[in-house]
Write a structure and sequence with these properties.
By secondary structure, the chain is α+β, with helices and mostly antiparallel strands. It has 1 helix and 3 strands, in the order βββα.
Length: about 100
């Protein structure tokens, strides 16, 4: 039995507004059931102590199916960005 294809999707914002978080760092963990992403922001780099300080902001847990769908979406968006702006140098991360 095929699952129905939804043609109308309604996105509802919570009454108290949408949580908006900036992140420039991500850690991850996995189980056999899901993928956990912990997003944070790099606050400080101290080269004297060879240390980076990252404030962990929000955790998102999703199924493996959702993770694969997110991967496909991000690959497409990154390819389009790089086609327009040039290749992103992943070696520029200082930590």
């Amino acid at each position: 039995m095929e699952e129905p294809t939804l043609t109308n999707v309604e996105y509802v914002e919570p009454d108290d507004g949408r949580l908006i978080v900036y992140a420039n760092n991500v850690m991850w963990g996995v189980t056999s059931y899901d993928v956990r992403l912990l997003f944070g922001e790099l606050l400080e780099i101290d080269p004297k102590e060879n240390k980076a300080v990252i404030e962990q902001r929000v955790q998102v847990t999703m199924s493996w199916l959702q993770a694969k769908q997110l991967l496909e979406i991000l690959q497409g968006k990154i390819a389009a960005y790089e086609a327009k702006n040039g290749v992103i140098d992943t070696k520029m991360v200082p930590y």
